[in-house]
Design a protein that fits this description.
Strand content: 25-35%
Keywords: RNA-binding
Pfam families: dsrm
Oligomer: single chain
GO molecular function: RNA binding
Strand order of the largest sheet: 1-2-3
Radius of gyration: 13 Å
Structural class: alpha+beta
Largest sheet: 3 strands, antiparallel
Organism: Russula ochroleuca
Protein name: DRBM domain-containing protein
Helix content: 25-40%
Length: 81
C-alpha cells in the first residue's frame, strides 16, 4: 500500500541539498462532536498552501493532503527548489 506522506518526504529529500523538508509545515484542526469528528489538514510549503486533506482521522486527512501537496510540488516547483 502506498504511503503518500512518505512519498512526499522522499520527494523533498531527493531535491538537491536534501533539506527541503524543513520548508514543509502542517496545519490541522478538528471539528464536530467526539463521535463524529472531522479532521482538516493543510500542507504548507514555503508559506504556500500546497495540499488540503479531510478525513475521519488525522492520519487519513494528512495522507489526503500529502497526495495534493506532492502533485502540486511536482508541477510547480522547479528542480533544485
Amino acid at each position: 500500500m502506498a504511503d503518500p506522506v512518505r512519498d512526499l518526504n522522499n520527494f523533498l529529500h531527493s531535491q538537491p541539498g536534501g533539506s527541503a523538508t524543513k520548508n514543509l509545515m502542517w496545519n490541522s484542526r478538528k471539528e464536530g462532536p467526539e463521535h463524529d469528528t472531522a479532521y482538516h489538514v493543510t500542507a504548507v510549503f514555503r508559506g504556500v498552501n500546497v495540499g488540503v486533506g479531510h478525513g475521519s482521522s488525522m492520519g487519513s486527512a494528512k495522507r489526503n493532503a500529502s497526495v495534493q501537496a506532492l502533485e502540486y510540488l511536482r508541477q510547480h516547483v522547479p528542480p533544485g527548489l
